[in-house]
Write a structure and sequence with these properties.
It contains 14 helices and 38 strands. By secondary structure, the chain is α+β, with helices and mostly antiparallel strands. Strands 19-20-21-22-23-24-25-26-27-28-29-33-34-35-36-38 form a 16-stranded antiparallel β-barrel. It has a four-stranded mixed beta sheet with strand order 13-12-15-14. A three-stranded mixed beta sheet has the order 1-3-2. The chain is elongated.
């Protein structure tokens, strides 16, 4: 529209003159042309500005009556066309003969001619009988139908065409050549060719008629030069954050800035490609680290580039002038009310009273007077204050409409002389809100009650941000709405808060869900230092419905695939077959998590059958376990279970080597294994309690969890033994990184366990297979499985009392971003550990001299499939113990 605007006044005056017959009042009835500037290449001279259009006398126009409509176009003429026909160009212009002159249509037509036809057009209007005639003057840009690239060796023509954006046809208009040159240089520089040069050779006219003897031709002459690799990045002057360590254990300014350019290392022997744009970004990132650490006057700049003699390598030298850090002189918090300012398209701010006492809010903050001014403290305080308000109904979410909590940019008062800064946090506190309704979107085939039992909010409750988030975690933990396949693009559950029309104090909480796999078939193979080589075939249904069979036998597979059968009731069904070289097992398990449909504090029913066979050191064990148990969820974190268990245990192939035995009256194997030879029956009552308060169900990083698991075996229940076996365990997890830093952070794990197996009644010894054993990749790393004594000769006696524990430092080596989110997922991990444990052949008795103690490290892959490599070194061992420095577990997922 703007290109045609200069003709608006003159055309309007001409149309008025035609309407009222006052053409004689105008000396020149011709409407001036509408100029259209020709786009210029960077190396071409700028086009002359268009001729200024004389504007008729305003008072004369005011005396003329207002027009009823624009003049009619009676004809359109084309001038300057060569490659295109007149009709093609007029059609593209869009203005039709016989219609009133449409300025917007003409302007769009000129745009279309340029972008679609590479034709520069100008329109002028002339008075004619019955209206106006338009003259479309065109200047056609000339193309080279096959531009050439010469001199390239390392980069093929196909990639050069891609960089040039030439498309499949490959034609290039001469005026575009300079732009293409810049694109080629940009592409070469991104590939590390820092010395690349590109020259353009053009022949022929840029526009207008083409001389057959001199057709348009464009040649790009390329001198690639060597590809430059970064050999090192040396930072000078960084006293507070010097670069230390290597590989994953690097620390310092570059590590904190997460710079992209790096020199050679384990997985990149030649170093990164030298890209100047990336280097500039890295320097800015290093500068921001200093800003975030309170060094507000710090200067980080490129010092110089030290190229090798052949220019294939470069050492980057970066200079740092840190200056002095700023400390916080004072911290205040104030409430803010924002009023829209329509004129400035912004908000006016005014102070209001805080809803909560300032002292209570300041107690949450890390940014206190006297501490160094750091961005991490600011981010931490922002999150703490947001959560504090959010748990009291003042939500920080713009989707709920107006009056929401917002942490504004703080007021900072600097004192450059003293290097201090006064900080005032500004809070838009918003309005307290309540939940009108909890909605679910996407759980198409899952029963509504199944989803609602994971949510602890009811309509009318305070909109507690903590409870809203916990509901999301509970839905995620069910695994009904997740898909852990490595190649899956599944979206995990998300929260949306929606305002309620007519009630500003109410919101709807909507959980967006996408149902995962109904049937999870796993074909796995692996090898384990404890269990040998094994395979696994499993059918897992986490959202099973035993009361929803298929419509017919023939529709079974279709109904299962469409989630129309055996799906949606929140039950679990697990079928597993695991053959192996040392262990063979099979499992059938069914769980109904809410028998009475109570939704809150539900009762559960679990039925399980397991068959297990293993070749132990000096005997073979086969067992069939059957279990039924009822559970009750007292709270979200605390549950109890009571049930009945029955097992047939068959012990065969006792091996009794007599080598090294001085007294033939002493049996070489533990006494209790002889009593158990053959088949025995174990029947008992189970009683379990669990208290879990961790950040996530699998692979927790913070929090704690506790368990007490007991079995009371008794002959009155049909078994052959009377004894009690009870185990208490506790695990504590905590992170060492800043809570507002990376999502994947280093952390510690402390695990403590105690067990007692005490015979009573007619039983003198606890059966050997039911005793406690230590050693292997899961307990006391550094010893073989069941390799820890006390021993009889080289055979462990097992314990009726056991204490063991571990202390681990977990360091994430590598993490990836989860698809569709910004959430980081840990991939590789380094673990430093120390394990200790002790066994006693008697109940309620521990000999400190029998303690075993190890230390070591482990390397592991967390996902897409678990791999664990542990190296344990015993510090203290006993006679007959079986040591094993290296232990491992490798599990691969085939399907």
């Amino acid at each position: 529209m703007r290109r045609f605007a200069r003709a608006w006044v003159s055309i309007l005056v001409a149309s008025i003159a035609i309407e009222v017959g006052a053409a004689a009042a105008l000396q020149d009835p011709i409407v001036p042309e509408v100029p259209r500037p020709v786009p210029q290449a960077p190396d071409e001279p700028e086009a002359k500005p268009p001729t200024t259009v004389p504007v008729p006398d305003v008072h004369e126009a005011e005396r003329t009556p207002a027009p009823k409509q624009n003049p009619t176009v009676v004809a359109i003429h084309v001038e300057g066309a060569h490659r295109y026909t007149d009709s093609q160009l007029v059609t593209a212009l869009g203005q039709k003969v016989g219609d009133p002159l449409d300025f917007l249509t003409v302007d769009k037509g000129l745009d279309l001619l340029w972008h679609a036809f590479n034709v520069h057009g100008d329109v002028t209007a002339h008075e004619a009988e019955g209206g106006v005639e338009l003259l479309l003057t065109v200047q056609e840009m000339n193309p080279d139908l096959e531009p050439r690239f010469v001199g390239n060796k390392e980069i093929d023509v196909e990639k050069l065409r891609k960089w040039s954006l030439l498309g499949e046809k490959g034609e290039l208009f001469l005026y575009q050549a300079e732009r293409v040159r810049h694109r080629l240089l940009e592409g070469y520089h991104k590939e590390g060719y820092a010395f690349a040069q590109v020259d353009v050779v053009k022949r022929g006219a840029v526009s207008g008629p083409v001389d057959p003897k001199e057709l348009p031709d464009v040649i790009f002459e390329i001198r690639e030069g060597p590809q430059v690799r970064v050999k090192d990045i040396v930072v000078h002057g960084s006293r507070t954050m010097p670069d230390t360590g290597m590989w994953w254990w690097k620390d310092g300014l570059k590590k904190l800035a997460q710079t992209e350019l790096d020199g050679p290392w384990l997985f990149n022997w030649f170093g990164d490609k030298f890209v100047r744009e990336t280097l500039d970004s890295d320097i800015v990132a290093m500068r921001e680290v200093y800003r975030d650490r309170g060094y507000l006057d710090a200067v980080v700049a490129l010092d110089h580039l030290q190229f090798s003699d052949d220019h294939t390598g470069v050492v980057v030298h970066v200079a740092v002038d840190e200056g002095q850090p700023y400390t916080v002189s004072s911290l205040h918090i104030k409430g803010i009310m924002q009023t829209p300012n329509q004129k400035l398209q912004d908000y006016d701010e005014s102070d209001v009273d805080l809803i909560f006492p300032e002292a209570d809010l300041l107690a949450l903050c890390k940014m206190q007077s006297g501490v160094q001014f750091e961005r991490t403290r600011l981010n931490s305080d922002s999150n703490k204050l947001r959560d504090y308000y959010g748990e009291r109904g003042y939500l920080a979410n713009a989707s709920i409409g107006v009056d929401y909590f917002e942490f504004l940019d703080p007021e900072l008062t600097f004192d450059p002389e003293a290097h201090t800064v006064g900080v005032t946090y500004k809070l838009v506190q918003g309005r307290k809100r309540y939940v009108r309704e909890v909605l679910f979107r996407g759980g198409t085939h899952t029963r509504d009650r199944v989803m609602r039992r994971e949510i602890d909010m009811l309509p009318g409750d305070l909109a507690d941000l903590k409870k809203i988030r916990e509901g999301l975690q509970h839905l995620f933990a069910t695994r009904y709405f997740t898909d852990e396949s490595p190649s899956s693009d599944h979206k995990n559950p998300q929260i949306t808060l929606k305002p309620v029309e007519g009630d500003p104090s109410a919101i709807d909480v909507e959980y967006a869900l996408q149902e995962g796999k109904d049937i999870n078939v796993q074909l796995q193979g692996g090898i384990d230092s404890d269990n040998g080589l094994f395979g696994r075939i499993a059918l897992l249904m986490h959202n099973f419905d035993i009361g929803d069979p298929p419509n017919s036998l023939w529709s079974t597979f279709g109904d299962l695939f469409d989630k129309e059968a055996f799906h949606g009731a929140g039950q679990e069904l697990e079928l597993e077959l695991q053959p192996g070289t040392k262990v063979n097992s099979s499992l059938i398990r069914f769980l109904e998590p809410d028998i009475f449909r109570s939704q809150f504090n539900p009762w559960s029913l679990e039925v399980e059958w397991r068959r297990y066979g293993r070749e132990e050191n000096f005997y073979h064990e086969d067992r069939n376990d059957r279990r039924v148990r009822f559970g009750h969820q007292f709270t979200r974190k605390f549950s109890g279970f009571i049930g009945y268990t029955n097992a047939d245990v068959r012990v065969t192939n006792l091996d009794s080597p007599l080598t090294g035995i001085n007294d033939p009256t002493v049996p070489p194997l533990p006494d209790s294994i002889y009593q158990q030879e053959g088949t025995t029956n174990l029947s008992g009552i189970t009683l379990d309690f669990t208290l879990r308060n961790v950040d996530q169900f699998l692979n927790p990083h913070s929090g704690s969890q506790y368990g007490w698991h007991s079995i009371f075996y008794d002959t009155a229940l049909g078994g052959d033994y009377d004894f009690v076996k009870s185990t208490i365990n506790g695990d504590w997890f905590w992170l060492t990184g800043d809570e507002n830093g990376e999502e994947v952070q280093p952390g510690f794990h402390l695990g403590l366990n105690a067990g007692i197996a005490d015979p009573y009644g007619h039983t003198d010894l606890v059966p050997y297979t039911e005793r406690f054993f230590l050693g292997g990749s899961r307990t006391l790393r550094g010893f073989d499985r069941h390799g820890v004594g006390p021993n009889r000769f080289d055979n462990t006696l097992g314990g009726e009392t056991a204490l063991w524990g571990t202390f681990e430092y977990r360091y994430p080596l590598y993490s990836v971003t989860e698809p569709g989110t910004y959430r980081q997922k840990e991939t590789f991990r380094l673990t430093l550990f120390s394990d200790a444990g002790v066994l006693s052949v008697d109940p309620w008795n521990i000999d400190p001299n029998e303690v075993r103690w190890t230390y070591g490290f482990g390397l592991g892959m967390v996902q897409p499939f678990p791999v664990s490599l542990n190296f344990g070194f015993p510090i203290k061992s006993g006679d007959g113990d079986k040591k094993q420095v290296f232990s491992f577990t490798i599990l691969s997922l085939w399907f």
